[in-house]
Write a structure and sequence with these properties.
Elements lengths: L3 H22 L4 H5 L8 E4 L3 H9 L6 H11 L3 E10 L2 E10 L2 E8 L5 E6 L2 H4 L5
Parallel strand pairs: 1-2
Antiparallel strand pairs: 2-3, 3-4, 4-5
Length: 132
């Protein structure tokens, strides 16, 4: 019979192996590599081809969507309705459109640091979380 410890170890190894397989299958598609999560109702656009994105991810210039979503959730109220990823003057940028109280807020995040670098739109100050 298998002990609980052996079953747990097997589960951990299986989970690691599954994750490694997903990572490996995404090796040739930079867009899939970045888009590690998808939220329903969010339109996604990549301005650069997947090979450029793949190389930028490997070099650490682009953080995955899960980290971008976490940064937005930490900084802002509202729902992301559009995400664009593009390179601008050698800096990778997430350009977002967020719906907050029926106002469209445009936000840019540095894709490497997850630092907000621009925000604008009608009543955008209402969308900013001040209780950090």
């Amino acid at each position: 019979m298998f002990s609980k410890a052996m079953i747990s170890l097997f589960s951990i190894c299986l989970g690691f192996f599954s994750s490694a397989c997903v990572w490996a299958s995404s090796d040739h598609n930079g867009h899939e590599l970045v888009q590690d999560v998808h939220k329903v109702g969010t339109h996604i656009e990549f301005e650069e081809d997947q090979d450029e994105v793949y190389q930028a991810v490997k070099k650490g210039y682009i953080r995955p969507f899960s980290e971008m979503y976490a940064a937005v959730e930490n900084d802002l109220y509202g729902r992301i309705i559009k995400v664009e990823l593009e390179e601008d003057d050698d800096i990778w940028v997430y350009e977002l459109k967020i719906n907050h109280q029926n106002n469209i807020i445009k936000v840019q995040y540095n894709a490497e640091t997850m630092e907000m670098i621009m925000i604008k739109g009608r009543n955008f100050k209402d969308a900013i979380k001040h209780d950090k």
